[in-house]
């Protein structure tokens, strides 16, 4: 690769991780204030908050559906969200990446969280995934949709294509990837790490929005923040991976531990560095892809909402019941301090 072209590609990839201009949320409307107050009530109404951490709102059958959305590179807000209010939510695991944006979309309650923070301040290795997932659970989300940028390992998964991921290979090594530890050990099943009910909704939404999307695909999660070497890229491609990113695997594992239904849409921005035509990237085209993907990603979420508004009493796949068979530490050996931190994540089973 010519040096100039290498530099151009580097700057494009850098640009790909830069924040898109964020639309101002504007002055909250009366109903926005009402939503925020309701949210505050919902997380604190059942008991007093401790040390600034709101008591969890454990969603119950019949509760209004509240959908969590984790936005990746290029997505720092959610178009179409009404009655919006940013609100800080602390957790026993530290602070999430940013405040959470509460709002309504098509009659459903949405809680949006920019994974890297507004302004893209947290690197993939430094995102507090446990706090992000705990916060979404704590405020009553049951379904969580992740929307993030990725590289592609398949010729047919061209830039602009979406992949509704259903498997992960986790190559990260600097993350906190479990809520459980000495004092309360649990082993959850991750054979099918995403929720197929959410996948169905996203597939239908993509069809309705006219977005080219592949249902199913393996996401290689690398540590980063540097992109792959070519040897790594060829290796991952030989493993049959579809896309590569830096965030989704820890998140999916934690969402599973927290009994949340989780699904991920990976939006292709480039071909990583295995592609023979990689040197011939049109800079403007790649930037257009990222911005276009961010817009399409938000449109996809909006289209998915009607499919998710009526949640079944329990997830057919059992995402919301995984802890029934996962806790292994004998009750008398459980550490109360550890249990306390699990109030949102595992409150359902630990209080049973
Ligand atoms: Zn599920």
From TrEMBL:
**UniProt record, GO biological process:** L-methionine salvage from methylthioadenosine; purine ribonucleoside salvage
Basic residues: bias regions:
1-25
Q: List every stretch annotated Disordered.
A: 1-33
Q: Where is the Nucleoside phosphorylase domain?
A: 66-304
Pfam families according to UniProt: PNP_UDP_1 (PF01048)
The GO terms this record gives for MF are: S-methyl-5-thioadenosine phosphorylase activity
Cite the entry's keywords alphabetically: Glycosyltransferase, Purine salvage, Transferase
Marked site positions, Important for substrate specificity: 228, 283
What chemistry does it catalyse, as a reaction equation?
Answer: S-methyl-5'-thioadenosine + phosphate = 5-(methylsulfanyl)-alpha-D-ribose 1-phosphate + adenine
* Residues that hold substrate according to the record: 246, 270-272
One annotated Gene Ontology cellular component of this protein: cytosol
Family stated for the protein in its record:
Belongs to the PNP/MTAP phosphorylase family. MTAP subfamily.
Protein purpose: Catalyzes the reversible phosphorylation of S-methyl-5'-thioadenosine (MTA) to adenine and 5-methylthioribose-1-phosphate. Involved in the breakdown of MTA, a major by-product of polyamine biosynthesis. Responsible for the first step in the methionine salvage pathway after MTA has been generated from S-adenosylmethionine. Has broad substrate specificity with 6-aminopurine nucleosides as preferred substrates.
Record's subunit section = Homohexamer. Dimer of a homotrimer.
Q: What is this protein called?
A: S-methyl-5'-thioadenosine phosphorylase
* Organism per entry: Ferrovibrio terrae
């Amino acid at each position: 690769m010519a040096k100039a072209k290498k530099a151009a590609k580097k700057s494009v990839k850098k640009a790909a991780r830069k924040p898109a201009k964020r639309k101002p949320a504007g002055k909250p409307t009366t109903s926005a204030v009402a939503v925020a107050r309701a949210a505050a009530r919902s997380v604190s109404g059942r008991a007093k908050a401790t040390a600034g951490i709101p008591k969890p709102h454990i969603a119950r059958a019949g509760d209004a559906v509240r959908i969590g959305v984790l936005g990746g590179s290029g997505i720092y807000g959610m178009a179409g969200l009404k009655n919006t209010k940013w609100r800080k939510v602390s957790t026993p695991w530290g602070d999430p990446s940013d405040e959470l944006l509460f709002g309504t979309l098509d009659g459903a309650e949405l809680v949006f969280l920019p994974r890297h923070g507004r302004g893209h301040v947290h690197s993939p290795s430094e995102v507090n995934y446990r706090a992000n997932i705990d916060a979404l659970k704590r405020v009553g989300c049951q379904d969580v949709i992740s929307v993030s940028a990725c590289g592609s390992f398949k010729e047919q998964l061209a830039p602009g294509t979406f992949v509704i991921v259903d498997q992960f290979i986790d190559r990260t090594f600097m993350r906190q990837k479990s809520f459980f530890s000495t004092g309360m050990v649990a082993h959850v099943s991750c054979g099918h790490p995403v929720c197929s009910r959410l996948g169905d909704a996203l597939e239908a939404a993509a069809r309705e929005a006219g977005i080219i999307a592949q249902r199913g695909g393996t996401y290689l999660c690398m540590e980063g923040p540097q992109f792959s070497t070519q040897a790594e890229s060829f290796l991952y491609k030989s493993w049959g991976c579809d896309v590569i990113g830096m965030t989704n695997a820890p998140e999916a594992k934690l969402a599973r531990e927290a009994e949340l239904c989780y699904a991920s849409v990976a939006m292709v921005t480039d071909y990583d560095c295995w592609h023979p035509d990689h040197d011939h990237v049109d800079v403007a085209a790649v930037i257009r892809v990222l911005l276009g993907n961010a817009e399409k990603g938000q449109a996809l979420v909006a289209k998915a909402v009607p499919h998710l508004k009526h949640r079944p009493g329990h997830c057919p796949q059992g995402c919301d019941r995984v802890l029934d068979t996962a806790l292994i530490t004998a009750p008398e050996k459980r550490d109360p301090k550890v249990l306390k931190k699990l109030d949102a994540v595992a409150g359902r089973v630990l209080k049973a």
